[in-house]
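can u do me a favor
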C-alpha cells in the first residue's frame, strides 16, 4: 500500500519503484523537467561514514532528511540523478549526500519536491530544522546544516513544510 492509499487521496504524485528514472522519452521524464527544491528521505541503520574532506559522521538509526535545490541548468534532473545513484550505486560521490546514497546502511525511501525558480532551499531547511548533522550539505550557504534526523518517518511533516512555503509538494515513494 502506498502513502496515498494509507492516507486517502491526497493528490500527491506517488512514484513507484517499478518506474525507470532513465533519460528516455517517457511520462516519468516530465517529473524531472523544470527547476525546483527537494527533500530526500533516507531510512538508515546506525553507522559511521567517512564523508570526503568533512571527515567521519556518526548516524543514529532512523530517518535522515536532506534538503537540496535544483535551480541550475539541469534543474530537477539532479533529483533524478540522486534516485539513480541510490538504486545503482554506480558513480563516485560528487556531493556530501552522495556518501549516503552509496552506503548500504542508508536506503532512499522517498523524495519530495516542488517546482519553483525561487531560492527556497534554505527556507525549507529552516522549516525542517531541529535535529541536524552539523555542517552537512551546506557549504554554499550560511545554514548550519541541510541534513536532519528523525526517529520516525517524517514524510507528512516534510509535505507540510513545503506547503507552509506555498509550494505544492509532489511525493515519490521509492
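np, heres the sequence
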Amino acid at each position: 500500500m502506498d502513502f496515498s492509499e494509507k492516507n486517502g487521496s491526497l493528490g500527491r504524485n506517488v512514484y513507484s519503484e517499478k518506474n525507470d528514472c532513465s533519460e528516455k522519452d517517457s511520462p516519468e521524464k516530465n517529473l524531472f523537467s523544470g527547476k525546483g527544491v527537494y527533500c530526500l528521505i533516507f531510512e538508515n541503520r546506525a553507522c559511521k561514514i567517512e564523508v570526503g574532506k568533512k571527515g567521519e559522521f556518526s548516524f543514529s538509526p532512523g530517518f535522515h532528511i536532506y534538503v537540496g535545490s535544483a535551480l541550475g541548468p539541469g534543474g530537477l534532473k539532479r533529483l533524478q540523478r540522486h534516485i539513480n545513484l541510490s538504486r545503482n550505486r554506480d558513480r563516485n560521490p560528487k556531493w556530501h549526500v552522495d556518501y549516503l546514497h552509496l552506503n548500504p546502511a542508508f536506503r532512499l525511501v522517498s523524495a519530495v519536491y516542488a517546482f519553483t525558480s525561487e531560492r527556497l532551499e534554505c527556507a525549507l531547511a529552516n522549516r525542517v530544522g531541529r535535529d541536524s548533522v552539523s555542517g552537512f550539505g551546506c557549504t554554499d550557504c550560511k545554514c548550519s546544516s541541510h541534513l536532519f534526523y528523525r526517529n520516525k518517518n517524517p514524510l507528512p511533516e516534510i509535505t507540510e513544510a513545503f506547503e507552509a512555503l506555498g509550494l505544492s509538494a509532489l511525493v515519490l515513494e521509492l
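Helices lie at 3-6, 77-88, 98-102, 121-128, 155-164. hope that helps!!
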